[in-house]
Amino acid sequence: MVVNTAAELCSEVVETYQPLHVTLTIDIVDKRFGPVKAEAEISISPVQSKGILEVLVEELESEHIFADENGSIYGSFGIDQSIQIYDEVLDTIPFEALMGHKNWKDTVESYMMEDKLKSQLETVLKNYQFSDLSGKYKFRKICTITEIQFGK
Questions:
Q1: pLDDT tens digits, residue range 102-130?
Q2: Residues 63-66: contacts with CB within 8 Å, 24+ apart?
Q3: What stretches of the chain show up as alpha helix (H) in DSSP?
């Protein structure tokens, strides 16, 4: 089915695409941690005022992560928190790329492919700022996704 107006596209997207539940296994480059499990809800959300669809992490939460400071001036900061990411835009799709095209759903679904989502989620995780135990310092950790599973 071809959609020709922004309102029609928004309506079709809301009807067709429900939030996608994703389970992740994350490796954080830090010898104090093993693999960390996380769950996320990914959605495609129309923003009619901007003329785009947003591929959005509605919510990503990991299990609790704890590591004490190792005591050295050159050592690592301690961590006592979960990774929590809300309403983070992974990508945008302009309406113009979809309206008037018979295969618009294929285009939208290409943004939800496993490899593409994995890469985008890794980028978000690499930019995530952890806090030290005191809450005074913020820092980043290199994170990679070793496993991604799609569920209902």
A1: 999 999 999 999 999 999 999 999 999 98
A2: 63/36, 63/37, 63/38, 65/28, 65/33, 65/36
A3: 6-16, 104-110, 114-126
